[in-house]
Design brief:
Blueprint: H1 2-24, E1 40-46, H2 61-64, E2 73-76, H3 88-98, E3 105-107, H4 111-114, H5 119-126, E4 132-136, E5 139-143, H6 153-169, E6 175-180, H7 215-228, E7 232-237, E8 246-250, E9 256-260, H8 270-275, E10 280-287, E11 292-299, H9 300-305
Parallel strand pairs: 1-2, 2-3, 5-6, 6-7, 7-9
Antiparallel strand pairs: 1-10, 4-5, 8-9, 10-11
Helix pairs in contact: 1-6, 3-5, 6-7
């Protein structure tokens, strides 16, 4: 009974916090008491993590087996299972790995996550909307749902207003991360698009105000405003891994763009697998006392085997 009461209290707190952030879009700074000023914060981003041949209900065994207690934030770049929302039990399975109700776990939905609808499962288990914000220790993360479209105008507009309000109000933070599944930035000069994404989302609408409200002319200018305030901006997408395992490029405006995803569970031939590019995940390390953010793409096999 005590556990049930505690869980309900935690859910109510989470809903209240998310309501404040997602309705106003104002960045709310939280302190992490368990970390001292001299500690290093670690954030991990993973995309396209589903296990091929698992009837759509499992993540890659290496992803499943990582120790996530060493990370201060977990960023899921979408397509976590290939049929994530088909059954509630699958969302519960994902929750058992990543603890989706934690504000520090943000899940940017992909096409495999939403194609069976059942978004109620996501909301009930995460206790928030699919677009959300988390801020702590000078680092703000916006989780963007790239699967929203003008058929869901209210949600799409709410998401855009959230992003705009965060960009308008951010002031004391040093870093802004925008995480997503789809490649929304292929219209920007950030490398060869066909080399790093699995599908092109260049026609995605940022809101319902215009058919021409695209990422590059609607959201990107907001990110430039943030950068001009002295905040470092990172955009990360997870619909990757088939053609390239890692991607990083800096725009001419000094905004960082990343792609990270895995796919090697789909390779059944042992020789082909041995010669394939290694699956990788993206890890950031933040030295708060120095206000320095470093990053690297890490070999998933090595991370798994070293545990």
């Amino acid at each position: 009974m005590i556990a049930i009461i505690f869980q309900k209290a935690r859910t109510l707190f989470t809903l209240a916090y998310v309501f404040l952030v997602c309705t106003s879009g104002t960045v709310i700074e939280k302190n992490t008491a368990s970390k001292s000023l001299n500690d290093t914060f670690r954030y991990i981003f993973m995309g396209h993590t589903y296990l091929s041949g698992s009837n759509g209900i499992k993540v890659d065994e290496r992803i499943e087996g990582l120790d996530y207690s060493i990370y201060d934030r977990i960023w899921l770049g979408g397509d976590i299972c290939s049929e994530s929302m088909l059954k509630r039990t699958t969302v519960e399975y994902i929750d058992s790995i990543f603890d989706l109700s934690l504000l520090t776990t943000q899940y940017a939905l992909g096409n495999h996550d939403v194609r069976n609808s059942n978004m109620a499962y996501y909301r009930e288990i995460t206790a928030r909307e699919s677009y959300n914000v988390y801020s702590a220790n000078g680092v703000v993360t916006i989780c963007l749902n790239s699967q929203l479209n003008p058929s869901k105008c209210e949600e799409l507009n709410n998401q855009f207003n959230m992003i705009r309000n965060v960009c308008d109000t951010i002031s004391s933070s040093s870093f802004l991360f925008l995480i997503m599944h789809g490649s929304l930035f292929s219209e920007l000069p950030v490398g060869q698009p066909s080399s790093y994404y699995n599908a092109d989302y260049r026609n995605w609408n940022a809101n319902c105000s215009s058919a021409d409200a695209k990422f590059h002319n609607t959201i990107y200018p907001l990110l430039l405003d943030v950068k001009n305030k002295g905040v470092t901006v990172h955009c990360i997408m997870g619909d990757s891994g088939v053609n390239e395992k890692e991607f990083h490029s800096v725009s001419s405006d000094s905004i960082n763009f990343f792609a990270s995803g895995i796919n090697n569970s789909s390779i059944t031939d042992s020789l082909e697998l041995a010669n394939a590019s290694k699956d990788k995940v993206l890890i950031f390390e933040y030295a708060k006392n120095l206000n320095e953010m470093s990053w690297g793409f890490h070999d998933l096999d090595s991370l798994f085997n070293e545990q």
